Amino acid sequence: MTKQIIPDIGDCLSEGWTLYRKDPVLLSGATVLMAVICMIGGLIPFMGAVIYPLLLAGLYSMVIRLDRGDTVTIRNLFDGFQHFLPLLIASLLISLFVAIGLFLLVLPGLYLLIIYGFTTLLIIDQKLDFWPAMERSRRIIHAHFWSYALLALLLAVICMLATLPFGLGLIIAAPVCLAAQYRYYSAVTLTETTL
Fold first, then answer.
1. What is the Cα 186 distance to its own chain's centre?
2. Pairwise CA distance, residues 66 & 69, whole Å
3. The whole model's pTM is what?
4. Mean pLDDT per 10-residue run, the chain (195 residues)?
5. CA–CA separation, 126 vs 16, rounded Å?
6. DSSP state of 23
7. Gyration radius of the chain over CA positions
8. CA atoms within 13 A on the CB side of 31
9. Of 152, 149, 151, 175, which is closest to residue 162 (Cα–Cα)?
10. φ, ψ at 46 (rounded to 5°)
11. Distance (Å, rounded) from C-alpha 68 to C-alpha 70?
């Protein structure tokens, strides 16, 4: 049995910033492009809900490729379209589960929102189908729940503060937070045994 390692949250944030600095113009540019596409897509009913998880996966793909020293271009923002159905079905199921959890007692919804936090990463990085990705995310994060929940809370606070003024800070904060989350994901998945 592999010894469970709990990543240091400060290290994840620091490493997320370092990873962002490898190509800040590209990551911030991709974030802006993603926002513009989502805003335009949002004008069409349900289109925003379809486009967002695909582009989010693409942004994760860019972070992963940067970390691994692969070539990265703005076209990688659309990598999520190669996993269209798994990403879309996972997004719909997670939204449904979280909505039901919030409706029932609030806390179950928040718990579900947190434990499915690696689903998109697992689909784009490990090419898992929607249900195996959701289940693996649930099992990994459940084993590190309080640590990951604290990271998720800090990232949410950073992004909320970055919305002032006019959301401009998100151009930097969003990719940095995704990179920090990816660092946490990398640390825990590397030490996982068969789930």
1. 12
2. 5
3. 0.91
4. 72 95 96 94 86 96 96 96 96 93 84 95 96 96 94 94 83 96 93 53
5. 20
6. S
7. 16
8. 22
9. 175
10. 70, -10
11. 6
